[in-house]
Specification:
Radius of gyration: 19 Å
Strand order of the largest sheet: 17-16-19-15-22
Helix content: 10-25%
Number of domains: 2
CATH architecture of the largest domain: 3-Layer(aba) Sandwich
Largest sheet: 5 strands, mixed
CATH class of the largest domain: Alpha Beta
CATH superfamily of the largest domain: Peptidoglycan recognition protein-like
Strand content: 25-35%
Order of helices and strands: EEEEEEEEEEEEEEEHEEEEHEEEHH
Number of helices: 4
């Protein structure tokens, strides 16, 4: 877990759920708009529910399927992604799919303190091999399919959900299996809340022109919550190329994503060492050599604008971030890129170069 992860104390009462999945072996902004209650629990079974919750509609999503492969052993399904995690040197790992060559494993956006981790597009592969760095330990890999598994029914809000006028998909609306937040019958990463200081922009380093972005969000959730053992998806919000905004890290049942009723930000897992009080927004795709789509950039700007106004932040200012857990400080822009905090290519050079434009537009 990240060094600024707070003590395991929860401020929310939750119903116990069994944890599903294990590690493998190896819109426009409308000021003052009404808030719609948005957080409803996923069903505990893989069959449709019979009891309706007011304001919700049953919707079926493919259940996440995962499996580990050793060498060229075949999987029982076609994998969309492979998640890998190891302890040791962060560089030197590789992966090979059938009829392919070894490709290096790079962290992309995700970073860990004690080794390396990667989420790799598998292109419907049914087998793969992983090569660990010399001396690496606890190598775990997991094939993930979030598109073609058996149906699992969720109670999804019947009406569009909005945060101060900005429309987004709540966790049930993209198929978040809430049981993945639990480990051994307890919440793996209990929610903690701190005043918002900064907003950090990321890219997910997943393929562009994604035909099924909701499935990719579910794969990232599996990767972060289970493979990396963070207990949830690492970002507060994600945005796909069509400009659709997805609610990320669970923040409670009050109907307002990312924040508690007092306006404090739930700690997520997107910038190691600087998570508490730092809101993370991830654009789906790889933005090194190309920028976000117009729709994605527009949604990013709107989301930053409404959050900045809500919390009284100046999008064009610089600040000294003070970690509320350990007192570590960092001079950063209020609206930063991941690389402003750590040595990483995230959010991609092209997206990073656009942040000045985003800050200016968000301040209008």
């Amino acid at each position: 877990m990240f060094e600024d992860s707070p003590p395991s104390v929860s401020h929310r009462k939750k119903k116990p759920l069994s944890r599903r999945g294990v590690l493998g072996a190896a819109g426009a902004v409308a000021a003052g708009a009404a808030l719609t209650p948005v957080v409803f629990a996923a069903t505990d079974s893989d069959t449709p529910t019979t009891g309706a919750e007011p304001g919700t509609t049953p919707e079926t999503f493919p259940a996440t399927r995962t499996a580990a492969a050793t060498g060229t052993d075949s999987l029982t399904f076609a994998a969309s992604y492979v998640a890998v995690r190891w302890t040791g040197a962060p560089d030197g790992a590789g992966i090979r799919f059938p009829d392919g060559t070894w490709q290096p494993l790079t962290a992309g956006c995700a970073t860990v303190e004690d080794g390396g981790t990667a989420l790799v597009a598998a292109g419907a592969a049914t087998s793969y091999e992983v090569k660990a760095p010399a001396g690496a330990q606890r190598v775990r890999s997991l094939a993930i399919d979030c598109a073609d598994g058996p149906g699992r029914t969720f109670r999804v809000p019947s009406q569009p959900t909005r945060m101060r006028g900005v429309r987004y998909l709540s966790r049930p609306a993209w198929g978040a299996d809430e049981s993945k937040r639990y480990k051994d019958g307890k919440v793996n990463s209990p929610e903690q809340y701190f005043p918002l200081q900064t907003i950090t922009v990321h890219h997910t380093a997943t393929p562009n022109a994604d035909p099924d972005p909701a499935a990719t969000v579910r794969s990232i959730y599996e990767f972060h919550a289970i493979t990396n053992d963070w207990g949830d998806i690492g970002y507060h919000f994600l945005i796909d190329e069509a400009g659709v905004i997805y609610e990320g890290r669970y923040s409670g049942d009050d109907g307002f994503p990312a924040f508690d009723p007092d306006g404090n930000l739930v700690t997520a897992f997107h910038t190691v060492g600087f998570n508490s009080g730092n809101l993370g927004i991830a654009l789906l795709g790889t933005l090194d050599d190309q920028g976000p789509t117009h729709a994605a950039k527009r949604s990013l700007t709107r989301l930053i604008k409404v959050i900045a106004r809500f919390k009284g932040l100046d999008p064009q200012a610089n600040t000294t971030f003070v970690n509320p857990v350990n007192g570590v400080t960092k001079d950063v822009p209020v609206i930063s890129g991941h690389r402003d905090w750590l040595q990483t290519e995230c959010p991609g050079q092209t997206m990073y170069d656009l942040l000045t434009e985003v800050r200016t537009a968000a301040a209008r």
